[in-house]
Fold:
Amino acid sequence: MNTIIPFISRSDPAERAAWIAALERAMPTQSIRDFATLSKAEREQAMVAIVANPDPAELAQFLNLVWVQSLWAGVERIVQELPGTQLKIVRMVDPQLADTMAEAVLAWTLYLHRDMPRYRAQQARGEWLAQPLPLPRERRVSILGLGNLGILAAQRLMTHGFTLAGWSRSKYVVEGMDTYAGAVGLQDMLAQTDILIALLPLTPQTRGLLDGAALAAMPRGASIINFARGPILVEDALISALDSGHIDHAVLDVFDREPLPPGHAYWKHPSVTVLPHISAPTNQTTASAIVAAHMAAYFQSGVIPPSVDLTRGY
Amino acid sequence: MNTIIPFISRSDPAERAAWIAALERAMPTQSIRDFATLSKAEREQAMVAIVANPDPAELAQFLNLVWVQSLWAGVERIVQELPGTQLKIVRMVDPQLADTMAEAVLAWTLYLHRDMPRYRAQQARGEWLAQPLPLPRERRVSILGLGNLGILAAQRLMTHGFTLAGWSRSKYVVEGMDTYAGAVGLQDMLAQTDILIALLPLTPQTRGLLDGAALAAMPRGASIINFARGPILVEDALISALDSGHIDHAVLDVFDREPLPPGHAYWKHPSVTVLPHISAPTNQTTASAIVAAHMAAYFQSGVIPPSVDLTRGY
Structure:
């Protein structure tokens, strides 16, 4: 007999249907049911639900809910929208996410290393011209942020042979790479960087970290990849540095406002690659497997996975 | 006292100067001298020279030359231009070449895997839209040609997590991947391929191997990377398959005629990435180090490295 597990989300119907299908593949003995298909009795019986940016008014109709499994890693919004709730919120922690981010870092580092934007521009002009190609060890790649994501990305880049450096607020030791910390350390590292990759969380300390002075510290012709958060990088400073040619190219996956507004200078800038926040999307297959494991443990023995500390918000 | 080593090449002056600088960095105790700077006496004294597509008329002025070190791996042209020569020709064999080719294979496989051409087109339209991203193990990448280059490239792709298959004329066993051989094997492999990478030598058997029937055997939406030789792929068949959408994208580094002629349909085709034969360029630093080792052995003990068999031509 299948257990009903409600699925509550403000995503569009196609995305909800895709999630329900992936969740059902991972839990064939459960019945994952979209909010709209549930009767009042079914809503009141449920003790657990799966959520992805849920509407608080919909959530409030589940009177006996003990906990919810979020499909997102970031739960700032649901925490904010449920003041004083007794509900336990379990966030998605999927090791695949760091792996996908390391893939994105490698993919777009190789994109810059192999001069793909320049070859694309040459193709548009019908120009046949080989660009110089340094060896990977001659390419200095620096990572801003040495958390879980930053260290895994650095290791992937080192496996490929690039020369790595890394910066974090406090000094870390990471095998195989030079590490820097603090404001002076940042200047020192930037001065020796060909490709800079931002993987920092957004905090009051990192907001605006990459400003005009930081960009000026980089060697002429360096490039930037921002896979962290838009406000880490000062937009006007970047556009000036790109226009002057001091910075050769920027790969931007995150922005001050998302989606990037129509007409923004980045869209048409020849030295900017605009990506729609896709560096490390949640994978429905691996995330559904994690949800399935949590549900099995709960239905078999009442175990609820570690939940969010609502006073800290994460 | 520096030994004079002549450098004889039809490359343009900037490229000759760059090579001479790289060679002198690798052999600081030798004097590498461009053909035009040598006196008649210096030409007649030289027993060894470094060549890169040399003019046979220039080469003929070196009356005591015993052997030449070519900077290129391919020596078909010099062999053809020196009929009946006693000169020993040493070709460049640089392990860096296979490593650079594996890098190119990984870089442009990730380019397709991460949908970079589609995001580029979306940026041009100002469109913000995330594309589905399979896990690397869900992406079936197949290599045509399991020589030194093909196997190293396959291993690099497996390290990244892609699902690999490979095809060669005779059946090989390669750990971690399915291998195929022969015409039936090719059809079987193509039917299960998302990204196909050509790394085959051009022979009478491989000319036109990727024709309309081969492309039709691939699943709709598959992509192709040609890093081998242009004539392996039938141009008209590829353009038809791209126009119909059966093949999603082609990354082409080699062509029937190079440079790719102005006005060729590939230049402006939205589903073609044109590269100017840059997948695995000779690296001046590593190639110069190999030349330096050969020169040191020759000047110290008269050893000439293995040279080209002029009857076979390689």
